[in-house]
Amino acid sequence: MSTITLKETDYDAAFSTCWKELKREFFKCETLQVYNEESERELLNLFHSGQHDQLQQLLRADVEDPDSIWNDAQTRGLSFLRVHVYQRPLSEYLRFEIEAYKIQAETCEDIRMVHLDRLQKGGLNNVRDFMLFDGGKALIPEFSENNTLIGAVLSDDHKVLEPLLQQREILLRIGVPLHELVQSERT
User: Fold this and answer.
1) Which H/E stretch holds residue 43?
2) How does pLDDT run across 32-74, given as a tens digit for each residue?
3) What fold, for 3-186?
4) Could you say which of 75, 103, 114, 146 is the most buried, measured as most Cβ atoms within 10 Å of its Cβ?
């Protein structure tokens, strides 16, 4: 059992290794209302400028890329679960993210949304971002004050995993499918 602190520069390699070792299920919990990721800047600019057709094309190309994690998950028959904790009103970033989620959900990703109030009613008060690989390894990203990735913790220690596995169960139970949130936003 080990826990390793990673620098931001080691994050992608750690994720890639964990993904390649994945046999059954990937679970991701996201809690921030805004992420400051360099890789999304172009897409966010398209979203903010109202160029939704071009945005949809790029998002779809990303998901359909033969090397994408979505394509790999489908090919390997992996379960791909994501829960995003949100607040109202939805941030502009989360509105953008939902556009991507709608395309990802068309593939193999089961995306659920949990309003902050439901989270607290479910007994979860200090949930943070984390990923679980087959429930046996956790990758816990660390973010700066402006929500930029600055590092992560990688662990297979049961003391780290056990509370995350419990949170996973509660989050999946109280989360609503993405399409229900999208539908409620239209009305």
Assistant:
1) helix 41-48
2) 999 999 889 999 999 999 999 999 999 999 999 999 999 999 9
3) Endonuclease; Chain A (3.30.870)
4) 114
